[in-house]
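As agreed, record passed on underneath.
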Amino acid sequence: MIRSYTDHAANERTFLVWLRTGVVVIAFGFLVERFDLFILTMADAVSVRGADRERLEALSHSFGGGAGEALNVVGIVFILVATFRFVRTGVLLDDTKVHTQGIVVELSLSVILAILLVAASIPLILPSL
């Protein structure tokens, strides 16, 4: 039997949740990156023409590319951090010394994700002002 099996199992479950989160953020990044195709298809379906169509095209291209790529990078960072934390926590679980857990990584990733969401919202808010 593995010593501290429940702790190692919890570490693995946490790792898998971080991986799932990273994959979901990457998938959302691809969706946002290709959202311009959806907008233009819908514009064709409802016959949007003239200045409104140009405005939709400009908004969709500027928003989709940058925000999608940023979300892809954040998802990859999530996966890399998850792998690092999984290995580090596994080593610390096998160590007999008492270790403290910091919140620097979680706080940093939360701030990065919040900044990214605010930055992605700006193009959607500014045209209406």
Notes: The first helix runs from residue 5 to 33. The chain has one domain: 5-124.
